[in-house]
Amino acid sequence: MTQATSLASSFTLGVPLTGRPSRISSYSWRISDWPGLGPGIAELRRDPSVIAGLSVTEIADHYAYLIRELHPPPALVGHCLGGLVVQVLLDRGLGAVGVAVNPAPPRGVKHRSFTLMAGFPALRNSVRHRQAIALTPRQFHRAFASTLSYQQATAVHARHNIPAPASVVRPKCFTDLARPDFRNRARAPLLLIGGGRDQIFPTSRTRSSFRRYRKSKAVTGYQEYPGRSHYTIGEAGWEHVADYALRWAMDHARHDP
Q1: What number of helices (H) and strands (E) belong to the chain?
Q2: In 3-state terms, what secondary structure has residue 220?
Q3: Quick one: CA dihedral 104, 106, 109, 111, positive or negative?
Q4: Cβ count near 211 (within 10 Å)
Q5: What is the pLDDT of residues 45-99, one digit of tens each?
Q6: Which domains are seen in the chain, by residue range?
Q7: CA distance 143 to 56
Q8: 16 phi/psi in degrees, rounded to 5
């Protein structure tokens, strides 16, 4: 399986194969690309203009359209900005359960400009424009995969990294989505996962989101992995994170009557 990584990362749908799935193999898992990612990694690196103007709202609406076509409702799993999209979609009443891994904070959760913007002035200036931008191998290692060696991070960057739309990596972009209703008792269960060495969205922000969601009677869980970076979905030991997330989702997913 080949998966692109960028400043904004990924989103996955888990579709139950049975009415009441009891194990991981009871799901059909689909890695669903953002709109515009069809050409593939090599082509997007050569010409990222197809995704340069993509907005956060367009991404959320794209997945909402896909989810409404699925029956029974799927489990939603997202990383980074994909984790924020999971929260927005659950708030819209979509999905049977959601897992947000190293998620961007929703509107309403106080957060500083994330490390990516604070640490790289050149990138901070470039995102003023309507374009797609990418991290250099050194920037990728520092911000995205800090627990890997530089050589390991460079290999990951060379294989998977693609540009991301400037409009979705600005700190302001996280206010472009409608603020999720933290008190929404009708939404499906949500699990938030944080990494203690995440240099982009520190666990303090994920814990802050969790505290806001606890005001709702809807089920919300939180799991923290102290030694894991923002690249937790790919670094050594990712299976343990995935196993916990999937089992939590199976235990808490809503089922059609």
Answers
A1: 10, 8
A2: strand
A3: positive
A4: 13
A5: 888 888 877 777 788 899 999 899 888 888 999 998 889 889 999 999 999 999 9
A6: 11-252 (3.40.50.1820)
A7: 21
A8: -60, 135
Helix 81-91 / helix 56-68 crossing angle, nearest 10 deg: 60
**Matching residue, tokens 């919300």:** 220
For residue 131, give every residue at least 6 positions away whose Cβ sits within 8 Å of its Cβ, in sequence order, or none: 48, 52, 166
Which CB contacts under 8 angstroms, 24+ apart, belong to 171-174? Answer: 171/111, 171/113, 171/114, 171/117, 173/56, 174/56, 174/84, 174/104, 174/105, 174/106, 174/107, 174/111
pTM for this entry: 0.85
Specify whether the CB–CB gap between 207 and 221 falls below 8 A.
no
How many CB atoms are closer than 10 A to CB 159?
12
Exposure string of 90-108, with b = 16+ CB inside 10 Å and e = fewer, is bbbebbbbbbbbbbbbbee
The DSSP secondary structure of 7-62, one letter per residue, reads SS--EEEEEESSSS--SGGGEEEEEPPPTT-TT-HHHHHH-THHHHT--HHHHHHH
Amino acid at residue number 108: G
